């Protein structure tokens, strides 16, 4: 098996759990980041029998994620990390898993996602409900896996005695420049300009509210967890400088912080399921309403706060009703304590490995396109990251606009890197928790 990942904070822990279980069953499995250099061995003597991708939308994704990493391979399983979508996204072609991508095997966290992609043309045999592996870590089986609040306070130099608040950011477009937004618009045929604008306004007001809250409630420690696509912006730097009790921390799993914190704030994070199944007090913070084009379906009819006065009123309460109805969350997540998602996913992977292909993505309707440029450029970019060479030093040769974009790409590669030793240590850590 070869597993491809995009974001460390979203996928690494989940992938390593799957790897540990597959190895326990006797299989070999490797992990590869999408922006790492292409490896000839995966086309030749170490070509995987099954490739497991982070996403699979259309022929372009099939070409980029599969063909340009391992060549033609019919056994493709999509872990499908983006399942909780807005109404507009659900109705768009891009998120409907179209063209030959529909012929891959797609993991679904619950019946809601399965029904959506099947109704949009994915054959039912290719849509498999397994539950969400990220929720497995909340099961009694994994008790003791995450660090306690005390240990986190020591590791991150945080004041243990304060009231810890976690804010899970979803401002994914906040750090993107115009060209990146336009690229998203073109790729998805959706309006990311509007999403960025409402996100930027909401972020500005939210930070103003946090500024007041930290002054008025000095016993509060606010941990801001940025979205994987979000960079540390000027407003965040200003908050860090002004408030010693405002911390921006992207390290470790979001679930570890959810379990350790006293209350959770969010705007529209899909980690709402982790909060719900952790039985934590949650406040959805929305300075302005989100239209259905942007709002995840799971948040429709949610009970959000839209003023600082309402935020502080709920903040001061010891117990709060959950802001989203339980039955809505449970439609999207098949959570089974008796059979964890990691077991069901590995059962599926084993079935795909042992049996003839369920379908044939590399067939009529798809035309392979080998990207020689990636084979040449990615090793250079990864070497630049290793040697800590930044493109901005060469702006006099290539121009400011080009070097800024290249610098952001190197930053993304740097954020997504992890050593083989760290991966193996994480897999080893899971062994004691597996049945």
Q: How would you portray this structure in words?
A:
With 435 residues, the chain is of the alpha/beta class. The protein has 2 domains: 2-132 and 335-374 and 418-433, 3-Layer(aba) Sandwich (Rossmann fold), CATH 3.40.50; 143-329, Rossmann fold (3-Layer(aba) Sandwich). It contains 17 helices and 12 strands. The protein has helices at 8-24, 59-70, 87-91, 111-119, 149-155, 178-188, 192-216, 234-242, 254-260, 272-277, 308-315, 326-332, 341-354, 372-386, 395-398, 400-416, 420-430; strands at residues 2-5, 30-33, 51-53, 76-78, 105-108, 127-129, 163-168, 220-225, 246-248, 263-266, 281-285, 304-305. The chain is globular.
Which features would summarize this protein structure in a list?
435 residues, alpha/beta, Rossmann fold, 2 domains, six-stranded parallel sheet, 12 strands, 42% helix, globular
Sequence-ordered SSE layout with sheet pairings:
Blueprint: E1 2-5, H1 8-24, E2 30-33, E3 51-53, H2 59-70, E4 76-78, H3 87-91, E5 105-108, H4 111-119, E6 127-129, H5 149-155, E7 163-168, H6 178-188, H7 192-216, E8 220-225, H8 234-242, E9 246-248, H9 254-260, E10 263-266, H10 272-277, E11 281-285, E12 304-305, H11 308-315, H12 326-332, H13 341-354, H14 372-386, H15 395-398, H16 400-416, H17 420-430
Helix pairs in contact: 1-13, 1-17, 14-16
């Amino acid at each position: 098996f070869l597993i491809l990942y995009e974001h460390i904070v979203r996928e690494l822990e989940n992938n390593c759990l799957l790897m540990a279980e597959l190895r326990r069953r006797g299989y070999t499995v490797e992990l590869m980041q999408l922006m790492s250099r292409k490896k000839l061995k995966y086309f030749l003597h170490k070509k995987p029998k099954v490739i497991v991708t982070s996403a699979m939308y259309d022929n372009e994704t099939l070409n980029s994620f599969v063909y340009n990493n391992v060549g033609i391979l019919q056994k493709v399983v999509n872990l499908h990390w983006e399942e909780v979508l807005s109404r507009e996204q659900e109705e768009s072609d891009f998120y409907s898993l179209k063209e030959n991508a529909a012929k891959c095997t797609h993991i679904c966290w619950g019946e809601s996602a399965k029904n959506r992609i099947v109704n949009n043309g994915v054959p039912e045999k290719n849509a498999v409900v397994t539950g969400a592996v990220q929720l497995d870590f909340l099961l009694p089986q994994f008790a003791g896996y995450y660090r306690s609040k005390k240990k986190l306070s020591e590791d991150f130099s945080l004041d243990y005695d304060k009231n810890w608040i976690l804010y899970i950011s979803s401002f994914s477009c906040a750090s993107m420049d115009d060209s990146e937004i336009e690229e998203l618009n073109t790729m998805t045929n959706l309006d990311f300009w509007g999403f960025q604008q409402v996100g930027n306004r909401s972020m500005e007001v939210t930070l103003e509210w946090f500024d007041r809250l930290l002054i008025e409630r000095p016993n509060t420690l606010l941990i801001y967890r940025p979205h994987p696509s979000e960079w540390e912006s000027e407003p965040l730097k200003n908050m860090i400088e002004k408030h010693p009790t405002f911390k921006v921390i992207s390290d470790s799993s979001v679930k570890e912080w959810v379990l350790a914190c006293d209350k959770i704030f969010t705007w529209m994070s899909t980690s709402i399921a982790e909060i719900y199944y952790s039985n934590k007090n949650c406040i959805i913070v929305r300075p302005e309403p989100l239209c259905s084009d942007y709002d995840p379906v799971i948040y429709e009819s949610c009970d959000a706060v839209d003023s600082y006065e309402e935020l502080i009123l709920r903040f001061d309460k010891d117990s709060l009703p959950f802001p989203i109805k339980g039955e809505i969350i449970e439609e999207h997540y098949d959570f089974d304590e008796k059979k964890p998602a990691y077991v069901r996913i590995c059962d599926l992977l084993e079935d795909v490995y042992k049996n003839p292909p369920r379908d044939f993505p590399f067939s009529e309707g798809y035309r392979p396109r080998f990207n020689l440029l990636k084979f040449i450029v990615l090793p250079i970019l990864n070497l630049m990251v290793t040697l800590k060479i930044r493109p901005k030093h060469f702006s006099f040769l290539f121009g400011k606009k080009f070097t800024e974009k290249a610098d952001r790409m190197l930053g993304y590669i740097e954020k997504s890197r992890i050593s083989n030793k760290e991966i193996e240590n994480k897999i080893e850590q899971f062994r004691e928790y597996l049945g």
